[in-house]
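Suppose you are handed a protein chain with no further information: no name, no annotation, nothing but its sequence. What can you learn? This example shows the usual starting point.
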Amino acid sequence: MNNFPFLSAATAFALLAAAPLVHADPSVSNGIYVQYGRAGTASDTNAYTLGVTKPMNFSSSLWGTQATGYWDLYGTYHLADNPNGGDYKTWLVDLTPTFRLRFDGGRSNWFVDGGVGVSYTDVRYRSKIKEFSTRFNFGTHVAVGYSFGAQREQEISLRIQHYSNASIKDPNPGENYVQLRYAHAF
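A reasonable first move is to predict its three-dimensional structure. Written in structure tokens, the prediction is:
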């Protein structure tokens, strides 16, 4: 059964519903973003993402940095070549609490992010060399980024993302992506 229409509608609804909740806060990445990612050359998988973020209500000092957080809700379309012809296509929805450290007590435009979230796909993820055993998985990431603009309302980040089911069920091949994100605050 193809859940594409249901998952697409659910993703669009979730993104639209969350958008009014997002507000500009230059201490964290927030607003709306687009992201492109690619899994290793063996998997040959592209990932196209649209997401929204909502700041968490905390800020703290940690090791000379400003520590903050945000909720990251996104939908991703994975597209991988099928050696038997056609493509493997997977839609994913994910919610990730993400924590950010901004250097120089929060004054720097440079930051690092990290988070662990939960994801669900319309079908089990497949690529040329991998097939997941579950549709429910976990996504973990680390990122380095730079904010710019008068209020730091724009940012770009380079991310490393890993998806797997945390050995809930075998096989658990996992997939790693290198991603580039552009975000704009409301």
